[in-house]
Design a protein that fits this description.
It contains 16 helices and 18 strands. By secondary structure, the protein is an alpha/beta fold.
């Protein structure tokens, strides 16, 4: 399949100023970029961008996609009460079918918001994988592992067995669109023996790891009290978890010594500003992380603690928090923060051939409407992206060279049927 984008505007970093640009896509990859017109006869699809902005697509670095099932359920609660009183009991009723529908709805929402790949940690991940394969998006999937009983050998834990089965069945499926990671839910839901064992099993398979880390002050301080002063980051370090490429979600309450660990072990931090604010967990000190050189990507968390799966919103809130909490509006520019939603997210997933508009890179592209009233005028496209644009400005989403959404229509999803089936499932969820 060959696609030609013509009359596109690219971000200034690509060196074409305000010239109209022509981009040829061959299969999954960007084949040619030129400021001279390319012949149109050899292409299956031609997209006239009409001077609108073509950018690298977004990569969601932390998500629980099936939690669309619980959007608006358990509102206005702190994390501990939200989990224990609302979410955990609701999750006891999950099935393959419910997770499949919840995932498919969340995927549709993300595609419409320009997200082409997400990092997921949940249960019934086989259902998530099937939804990913059906819809054309990409994902790093992990079965969340918790271990409360030290008398149970980790090799016999059903969650680990599900993780291994997920790897055996889906890793590399869809021509690499599905990648499988291993995941430890958090320090407070695991004991050291299990963490060491899971890390070793991941190492045998050359996999990446996902963890929740220091999301709340309570979690962070109770870990130190329980483990002789060790922080959650130090605990995972001692268990060998960070010997693997790891994405650590939240990291709101980490200490300076934890940042040293992240730097030394090349840990990716998934910053989830909206979810952290909504649950009253706090604000991750993004400016400190970036000054130290820690690799940060953006995540939405689940729709149950965020309500939207929208990286443009995360980018805006992250930028505003960075300015408001430091008192320095010039600390980080919109251009400097933009890679958190694109290239850094791709790298956190191990997708090194993604996240940039360059020849030879994967054709993960999003076309954005510069003509919306709220985007006029455009003096600085990075500022327009970060502070003005919304997901309603997404005109087209392409993943691995395949158009998944264009001008209000999905190419792989029957939106009305999906909404009908999802609403029917939610209506009878607690029957």
């Amino acid at each position: 399949m060959k696609t030609l984008f013509k009359n596109a505007r690219l971000l200034p970093e690509y060196g074409y100023a305000d010239k109209p640009v022509f981009i040829a896509v061959n299969g999954s990859y960007i084949a040619k970029i030129s400021d001279e017109a390319l012949g149109e006869c050899e292409y299956d699809t031609i997209v006239d961008c009409r001077g609108n902005l073509l950018i690298p697509a977004f990569y969601n670095a932390h998500c629980h996609v099936a939690m669309t099932l619980f959007r608006g359920f358990g509102e206005d609660l702190p994390l501990a009460d939200w989990l224990e009183k609302k979410i955990f009991p609701a999750e006891d009723r999950l099935t393959y079918e419910r997770v499949f529908l919840g995932s498919k709805l969340g995927i549709a929402e993300m595609i419409r918001a320009g997200i082409v790949s997400f990092t997921d940690m949940y249960m019934f991940e086989d259902a998530v994988a099937d939804a990913v394969l059906e819809t054309g998006i990409k994902a790093n999937l992990s079965r969340s592992i918790a271990s409360f009983d030290e008398s149970i050998g980790p090799e016999n834990d059903y969650r680990l067995k599900e993780s291994i089965k997920l790897y055996d069945t889906y890793h590399g499926a869809g021509e690499g669109r599905v990648l499988v990671d291993f995941a430890l839910h958090a320090e407070y839901t695991n004991h050291a023996r299990a963490c060491r064992y899971v890390a070793e099993e991941a190492k045998k398979r050359d996999l990446r790891m996902q963890v929740h880390l220091s999301e709340t002050k309570k979690e962070h301080e109770e870990c130190k009290a329980r483990r002789g002063g060790k922080t959650p980051a130090e605990f995972f370090l001692d268990c060998g978890v960070f010997d693997l490429p790891t994405t650590a979600a939240h990291c709101v309450w980490v200490e300076d010594s934890d940042l040293d660990i992240f730097l030394d072990k090349k840990v990716f931090v998934a910053h989830n500003p909206v979810s952290n604010l909504k649950l009253g967990s706090g604000v991750m000190p993004l400016a400190k992380f970036l000054r130290r050189g820690v690799s940060v990507a953006l995540g939405t968390d689940g729709a149950a603690s965020n309500n939207r799966l929208d990286l443009l919103r995360e980018l805006q809130i992250a930028a505003l928090l960075d300015k408001g909490t430091t008192g320095n509006p010039a600390g980080h520019t919109a251009k400097e923060l933009f890679p958190l939603a694109t290239e850094n997210g791709a790298l956190s997933q191990g997708r090194t051939d993604c996240g940039r508009i360059e020849e030879g890179k994967r054709a993960d592209l999003v076309l954005l409407n510069l003509n919306s009233l709220h985007n006029q005028p455009v003096y600085d496209p990075y500022a327009t992206l970060t502070y003005s644009m919304g997901r309603e400005d997404v005109l087209l989403t392409m993943a691995d060279g395949r158009i998944l959404y264009q001008n209000g229509e999905y190419t792989s999803i029957d939106e009305e049927r999906l909404k009908y089936e999802f609403q029917k499932t939610v209506a009878h969820y607690f029957d």
